[in-house]
Amino acid sequence: MTPTLVEKPQASRPAPRRRRGTAVRARRREAIALVMPSLIPILVLSVAPLVIALALAFTDARLVRNPDYDFVGLDNFGNLIDNALFWDSLRIGLIWTVGVTVLQLAASMGLALLLNSGLRLQGLTRVLALIPWAMPPVVVAIMWQMIYSANGGPLNAVLGSLGLPGDTNWLGDFSAALPAVIVVGVWVGMPQTTVTLLAGLQQIPAELHEAASMDGAGPWRRFTAVTWPSLRPIVTSITSLNFIWNFNSFSLVYVLTEGGPGGRTMVPVLFIYLEAFKNRNIGYAAAMGVVLVVIVVFLLALYLRSQFRHDRVERKG
Amino acid sequence: MRFLARPAQYLALALYLVFLGFPLLWLISASVKSSRELNSLDVSLVPNEWHWENYTEALSRQGILHSAWNSLVVALVSTALVIVIALPASYVLARLRGRVRAAGVGWILVSQVFPVVLVILPLFLILRTIGLADSLVGLTLVHVTYMLPFALWMLQGYVSAIPVELEEAGAIDGASRFTVLRTIVFPLLTPGIVATAMFSFVSSWNEFFFALVLLQSPDNYTLPITLKMFIGGEGKVALGPLAAGAVLAAIPSIAFFTLLRRRLTGGLMAGAVKG
Q1: What is this model's ipTM?
Q2: Which residue has the higher pLDDT, B166 or B3?
Q3: Which residue has the higher pLDDT, B206 or A118?
Q4: Residue A100 in contact with partner chain B when CB distance is under 8 A
Q5: How far apart are CA B117 and CA A63, in angstroms?
Q6: Which helix (H) or strand (E) holds B139?
Q7: Tally of domains in chain B
Q8: Alpha helix (H) ranges present in chain A?
């Protein structure tokens, strides 16, 4: 009896398996047909350029008609080590990125908490809060140039009427320009972060807060014990994304200051753009771009690792 | 959460409102001020006299209307293409498991990390080789490619929300996979498609960097580039018409985003958080 029992299914197995095999193949063919239209532009205009960019970084290519370029090995990277201007711009880029990302998170957290606490004027606030997200970066830059204008600008007018110095040339002053640009970056990025945090806040069950207050937890204790731990995954992902987006953002700073005054707001993407399209050294510029990617990935890995480690420690404790 | 008493909360909210809303108010106010008032040191939000001529001047400035038309064409065509291309792929992304999905989601994330400034160098060379560097066709293709990851992400979130049982019911009735997609899945996706399309339109309409690098002849400029040229090239610029042009450029985006409001707070992040 036992052998037949074992044999029976064995005997009948091959047929369905073959049928399933053709079904899987048919499904795969369907899937490929459905994906192909997306895949082609991505391969041609996104993956290929990326691969070529990596290759360019090892050449002395210049942006001229009929270019002819040679493989130069690691020369570009070697030259980069001595390029003080590049490292200076990297330092500025990190101040810009970390400044904007951290302030964005803090400001957005405050706004999200306010929007989640049943105040009036919610509708108006939510519409207004989306406007910076919607506006074209060029318009944002034009707008803030007017706000920051040294004479006739509303910011200086307000400061002047409060008895403070009202003649700062915000975007033209060596020490004021970078902070001024960072504020605009925060303004632009706040909506998306706020909306994300708000969605997270609304998913926290009210019972958790009730339980915490029954245990006598005050507002701050409830924030640290209930809200923040529940939001952690969302905070980690939106912060990582903001970090990348801010590091790579170009248009805003380009239109606001073009990297000035005296290179004080020369973020790395702007530096690379000028190297490629003004100095026409695209090989060198590509090498800078590669260094940039490596640094971003490294910092991101560091941040994510610390977050995960923190999670594990918390779960153990 | 109640860190602060109600009055303090309203005060904080008011500060946020001023921070978020005042710059736009100021831009609108500047767009209806005469140049005499804009250059005076007497600063006020409400204009002394309403100077609507800025708008007619901005529109009659050679370039603004023409480049707005360019922007509109690029945005409409690239939005249509993105939807047509992304719709089937997002279905695969949402429904199939395993390596296809992993590769797709992986690419969507990786594409965020690489700075466009690195990609633009070879992209410029490729487009120049096929003669599309200084052309709206080339710009449209680039917009489609770089809007795709986000569109795929958004749409696959909406597909995941459709119960598989509906499709199975269709299949049992003898419909082929493509019939199921056409008659069951895509109609249910309409709200998601509308939201994704509006978002794509705004991305393309607002886009600055690719247009800056790729377009060289003023005839091809999109609106953001023309506005930038007004500040840069002509030295001391007439602020009133510039503000008016900026307001006009922002109107379509703000209108769409206001319509999208609910989806942006709900759908978009629902997909993102779940992923």
Answers
A1: 0.88
A2: B166
A3: B206
A4: no
A5: 15
A6: helix B136-160
A7: 2
A8: 2-12, 14-42, 48-56, 75-81, 84-115, 122-134, 137-148, 154-161, 177-203, 206-214, 219-222, 228-248, 251-256, 268-277, 282-316
Q: What letter would DSSP give residue A259?
A: T
Q: Which CATH number goes with the domain that contains A149? A: 1.10.3720.10
CA distance B69 to A258: 27
A237/B272 touch (CB, cutoff 8 Å), yes or no: yes
Res. A17 pLDDT band, cuts 50 70 90? low
Report the number of distinct structural domains present in chain A.
1
Residues A102/A94, Cβ–Cβ less than 8 Å: no
Q: Is residue B58 part of a domain?
A: no
CB A146 within 8 A of CB A67: no
Domain boundaries, position B182:
63-274
In chain A, % of residues over pLDDT 90? 34
CATH assignment of the domain containing B182: 1.10.3720.10
User: Is B166 contained in some domain?
Assistant: yes
pLDDT tens for A160-201 read: 888 888 788 888 888 899 999 999 999 999 988 998 898 888
Question: Cβ contacts of residue A156 below 8 Å, gap of 6+?
Answer: A149, A150, A166, A167, A168, A170
| Domain with A163 in it | 75-316
Please say whether the beta carbons of B86 and A238 come within 8 A. Answer: no
Q: Which of B9, B38, B115 sits opposite A269 (nearest CB)?
A: B115
Contacts of B247 in chain A (CB under 8 A): 139
What pLDDT does B237 receive?
A: 66
Same structural domain for residues B29 and B164?
Answer: no
Beta-carbon separation of A128 and B116 below 8 A: no
Beta-bridged to residue A71, according to DSSP, are A59
pLDDT at residue B118 greater than cutoff 60: yes
Q: Let me know: does B235 contact B222? Beta carbons within 8 Å.
A: no
Measured between alpha carbons, how far is B129 from A299 in angstroms, rounded to an integer? 36
Report the C-alpha gap between A42 and B240 in whole angstroms.
42
Please say whether the beta carbons of A148 and A155 come within 8 A.
yes
Q: A83-87, A136-140, A306-310, B198-202 — which is least confidently predicted? A: A306-310
Whether residues B134 and B243 fall in one domain = yes
Contacts of B19 in chain A (CB under 8 A): 187
Tell me which residue has tokens 């970078």. Answer: A178
Amino acid in the structure at residue B249: A
B158, HSE (Cβ side, Cα atoms, 13 Å): 27
Backbone angles phi, psi at A4, to 5 degrees: -65, -40
Same domain assignment for residues B24 and B103: no
Residues B68 and B41 in one domain: no
Assess A301–B contact: CB distance below 8 Å, yes or no.
Answer: no
Cα–Cα distance, B48 to B45 (Å, whole number): 9
Beta strands in chain B (DSSP E): none
Examine residue B1 and state whether it is found in any structural domain, yes or no. no
**Rounded mean pLDDT of B20-42?**
84
Whether B129 contacts B137, CB under 8 Å: no
At residue A9, the pLDDT reads 41
Q: What pLDDT does residue B72 have?
A: 95
Rounded to an integer, what distance in angstroms lies between the CA atom of residue B87 and that of residue B98? Answer: 20
Does a structural domain hold residue A69? no
B29 has a chain A CB within 8 A of its CB = no
